[in-house]
Design goal:
Blueprint (H helix, E strand, L loop, with lengths): L13 E8 L4 E6 L7 H15 L6 E4 L2 E7 L3 E7 L5 H19 L5 H6 L1 H11 E2 L2 E2 L4 H8 L9 H14 L11
Antiparallel strand pairs: 1-2, 1-5, 3-4, 4-5, 6-7
Helix pairs in contact: 2-4, 2-5, 4-5
Length: 181
């Protein structure tokens, strides 16, 4: 067979995942290969991604020979970076999974404030979706299942009331209120 000039297929499809704020500052980033080895190169790339995608109406950009799929929320910019030959639909599926899984973990809108308060959960979401550039999952519900319960669920109202009343009886009070003096 003759070589066709096409690169060999690879599982290593994602080069970086980025979350930038409304000023282009990095909130969350994972780089999976040596395309940007230093912090200065990463910051320069993030700045160029932000300036190219800010105000743009599209969802896909080609920047520095890389494919960037992005989505904006109220004050955040989410980006998935792949190689020049990567399938945009696969990168878009990763982006959709990232945004949907983060909104499920945060249990609120995707805003900078909520993301910063739950940064540990956001990193866990990133790690469940992509590992070393290999896409592991594209279904946000399965990502959430893999993370497991992060916090105990609140007890039903009746059990809380029962525990409160039982505790007050043990202390000698009746019904949880101090007796009048």
């Amino acid at each position: 067979m003759e070589p066709t000039g096409l690169p060999e297929p690879s599982l290593y499809t994602v080069k970086a995942l980025l979350v930038l704020d409304s000023r282009g500052q990095r909130l969350l980033a994972k780089y999976y290969d040596g395309s940007f080895p230093t912090a200065q190169e990463q910051a320069a790339f993030e700045s160029s991604v932000f300036s190219k995608t800010r105000g743009a109406g599209g969802e896909i950009a080609c920047l520095e020979g890389l494919t960037v799929v992005y989505r904006s929320s109220s004050d955040l910019l989410f980006c998935v970076v792949g190689g020049p030959q990567e399938n945009e639909l696969m990168l878009s599926a990763v982006l959709g999974c990232l945004c949907d899984a983060l909104s499920l973990v945060l249990r609120k809108d995707l805003e900078k404030r909520w993301l910063l308060e739950n940064l540990d959960g956001a990193f866990l979401v990133l790690d469940e979706i992509v590992d070393r550039g290999v896409i592991l999952e594209s279904d946000p519900q399965r990502v959430l299942q893999r993370l497991g319960p992060r916090a105990p669920e609140p007890a039903p109202y009746g059990f809380v009331l029962f525990d409160y009343l039982a505790g007050s009886r043990e202390q000698g009070g009746a019904g949880g209120a101090d007796p009048p003096k």
